[in-house]
Amino acid sequence: MWTERYRPLSIADVVGNEQAKLEFIIWLDRWKIGAKTALLHGPPGVGKTALVEAAARERGYNLIEMNASDARTEAAITRIVGRAAGETSLDATIEGSERNLIFLDEIDGLFGREDQGGVGAIIDLIQRSRSPVVLAANNASEPKLRSLREYCITIRFYEIRPPLIVALLQKICQLEGLSVDSDVLKMIGRSSSGDLRAALNDLQRLAQGRTVLKKSDIPFVSERDRNLDVSRTLQEIFESSDLARALAVQRSSQIDYETLHLLIHDNLPFVKRDVVELSEAYERLSEADVLFGRIRGEHWGLLGYAIELMLSSALSEGPRRATAPALKLIPSKFIRLARTRSERELLESISTKVGKNCHTSRAIAKRDILPYLRIMLENDGDAAEDISTYLGLDDEMIEYLSGREKGPEA
Amino acid sequence: MITISRNGFKLPYLGKEKFVELMRSGIAYDKARGLFYVVEGGNPERAKATLAEILDDEVVFSQTCLVCKRDFGCADCDYRISCPTRDVPLFCLCSSCRERPNLYESYHIANEAFLKAASTPIRKRGVQAESR
Amino acid sequence: MWVEKYRPQSLEKVVDQRETVESLKILLKDPLTMPHLLFSGPPGTGKTTVALCIARILQGDLWRDFTLELNASDERGINTVRERVKSFSRHAVGLLGNIPFGLIILDESDQMTAEAQTALRRIMETSFRTSRFILICNYSSRIIEPIQSRCALFRFSTLKTEDIARHLQFIAKNEGVNTKEEAIRSIVDFSEGDLRRAINTLQAATAYAREQPLDERVVTKVVGQAGPKEVRNMIQKAMSGQFEKSRELLYELMTKHGLAGSDIIRQIHREITRMEEIPAKEVADLAQIVAEYDYRLVEGANEDIQLSALLAQFARFGSPHRT
Known about the structure:
Largest sheet of chain B: 3 strands, mixed
Largest sheet of chain C: 5 strands, parallel
Number of helices of chain B: 4
Distance between the termini of chain B: 51 Å
Distance between the termini of chain C: 48 Å
Structural class of chain C: alpha/beta
Radius of gyration of chain C: 23 Å
CATH superfamily of the largest domain in chain C: P-loop containing nucleotide triphosphate hydrolases
Structural class of chain B: alpha/beta
Number of domains of chain B: 2
Oligomer: heterotrimer
CATH architecture of the largest domain in chain C: 3-Layer(aba) Sandwich
Shape of chain C: globular
Helix content of chain C: 55-70%
CATH topology of the largest domain in chain C: Rossmann fold
Radius of gyration of chain B: 18 Å
Number of strands of chain B: 7
Strand content of chain B: 15-25%
CATH class of the largest domain in chain C: Alpha Beta
C-alpha cells in the first residue's frame, strides 16, 4: 500500500499543516511532567497520526499507540498504558529509551457501552502520566470530549491544500516510475476534499498495473463516489470556457440532465459573483428551463438544444473571478421538499379547513385569510380558543399558525 | 471583496464589543506596528465572518506561499471551487511555484527551514536520543 | 371569525348591491323559472354571500344538505367536478317536495380553461332538471359564451367606502372594540373594496391591539405583517445586490407560506408599483421584465428557477444604484 510505503519518516516529510506541526513540536519539546496534553483535531487523512509517528521517530521517543479500533475499557487502557505512566519498563522492547510518547488516536471513538469510563480513564492517565500524552480526534467540539478539554491544548489540522497534494502525488509517481498526465493528478487533488490519504489511495487504485496514466484511462471511479462525480462534473463545467468542453463533460458524467439543471441553478450565485454575469447566466438558464418544460412528454427534438442552453449558462467567462464556497452537490429543491413536506401538508390541511368554513377555496384561504388568522391566534389567547374551535383546528395547527406552543391552559 | 493579509492589516475604529469579538476569533493587535494580525490557533472562519460584518463586505484572507514566501489570494487559483479551505489564512503553494520542477523537494526544504527557524531549541535531557 | 359571524343571512342585510339584490328578488318570486346564475365582480363584494342567501331562501334551514359548494381551484379537473355534481344530484335532491332544486355554487369559475368550461356547460345542461348552478367569477369575459348565454348575469360592483366603514363600525360596536375613526379609514383604504379583507384586518388588528384602543398605528403594523412585506423585502434584497439572501426569501415564500409561483409573481408586480424607492420610469421597465417571466413561468419546468432568474434580473437592474 502506498500509504504505508510512503509514510513520513521525519516531521518535514509530513505534508501540509505547517503551523500545526510547529505548534506540536513546540509543545513536545517544552513538555514536562504536569504540562497539558496535546489534542490534535481535524478531518481524517490530513496527517495527525503521521505527524505523531514521525515526531516520535525523529525526536527519539518510544511511541505507545492506541486506537479507537482497539477495545477500550478503563481496564484495557490502564493495562496497556499504565505500565508506562509511572513504572520503569519491564518490557524488552522499550529497552534503551526512557522516553515514551503516549498516543491515543481517534478518541471520538470513545462512545458507547464498550468504552465504559473511557474518558475518565484518559483523564486519569493524563494526570498520572510521567510521559507526554497526545490525543487525536476528528472533531474536538464533540460534547463528550468536553471534560477532556481543560487538560489539553488543542491543535487544529486543516484539509490539505490541493496543490500540495498534487506535488506529493507527482513525487510519488516519479518514485514509482509512473508517467501520469498532470490533469489526472489535478483531478485527484480536486476530488480529494483535502484528504491526502484518500488521494494517495485513489492514485494507487487508478495506477494499478500501469506505467502510464492518461486522462482517457479514468473511468467513473467507483459507486461510493457519486459525490465525486457530481463534484467533478460541476467543477469542470463551471471552469469550462467553451461549450464543446462542457458538453463532453456532461456526456461522460452519470448525472442526469434534470438534476444537473437544478444543480447549476443552485450553484450559479456562488460561481458568478458579478451581478451582470449572474443575471445573464440566469437568463439563459431560464430559457433552458422553458424548453425543458415544453419537452416534457413530447418535443424530444428540443432536448439537445435545451441542454446546450443550460450548459452555456454555466460557462466560465474568461479571467478568473472571485472565489466561491464549496459547491452544493444535492439539489436544494429535493432537500426543501423533503424537509418541509409535513409543514406543507399541515398548511394544506389548515387551508382546507379554513376554506370550508369561510366558503372559499384553499388557495384563497392560504393567501388571503391565513395571514390574518396567524395574527389573531398569536395575539389574543381567548379569541384564539374560540376561533380554532370554530374552524376545527387541532393543537398542532394552532401551534404552527401562531408560532407558539399551546400552554397547559389557553 | 476585501483581501486581508494575515500578517498585518488595518481596520476602522471598532468599539469595544467588536474588538473583543475579534480577539475571540483569533485576531490580535500589534501596538508597535499599529496593525491587526491573525493569531495562530484561532478560528479563522469566525474571524472572517466578524471582519465581514465590520467592513460590510466579503472578506477573504490571503495565503502565504511556503516556498517563495509571497502573499497571494485564492481568486486566481485553479482549485478555487474545490478547495475546502479556500480563503483561510494558511500556507500554500503559489501558482508560479506550482510550476517548478522538483516541486516536492523545494517544499520539503522550505518545510524544514520553517520548522527549524520557528521552533525553540530542544531542551537538553540527560540522554541524547538516537534516531532508530 | 367575524367574516362568518357577520355574514348577512338575508338579502336585505347585504351591503350595497341594491340593484342586483332587487333583480334577484324578482327572479326568486318564481323559483321554477330561475335559470342558472352567473355572478361576477371584484373579490369581497358579496357574491358568495348572496349565493348563500339564495340557498336559504329557496331551501330553508336545511339548505346545507341541498347546496354543493365547489371551487374550481380546489378540484383537480373537470372530471372531478362532474363526479361530485353527479353524486350530489343523486343523493340530495328530490327528498323534500317543497324544495325546487339543488344548488351548485361553483366559485372561481373563470379560472377554468375553455375546454373545462365546455365540459361544464354540458354538465349544467344535464343537471338542469334537478339543480341550478350559481357560477361565481371575477371576470365574466373569461366565461365562454355558451355558458353565459345559459345564465342570468349579475354584476357585483365595488363597495362604497362609506358602506364598508359603516359595516366595520357596526361590527366593532357589537364586539365591544374601541376604534378610532382614522383606524377604520386606514382599514378601508387598505382593503381596496374587499369587505372580507376589511373585516379580517379589523379582527386581526383588534387581536393585536389587545387592551389598547385600535388606532392607525396598530392597523399599519397589522397590515405590514399580514401583507406582502416578505415579497417587498425579497425584491429589495435582490435590487441591493444580495442575491443569495433574496433567493432564500423566495424559498421561504414558497415553502413556509406555501405560495405558488403565479401568486408570487403577481405580488411582485403589485409591489413594484407600490415601492416608493423605484422611480416611475423604472417601474415600467421592471414590469416588462416581470411580464416576460410571468410568461416563462407558465411554460417552464421549474418555478424556483424562473423566479430566481427574475430576481437575478432585478439584481442587475438595481446595481447602478448601489452606493
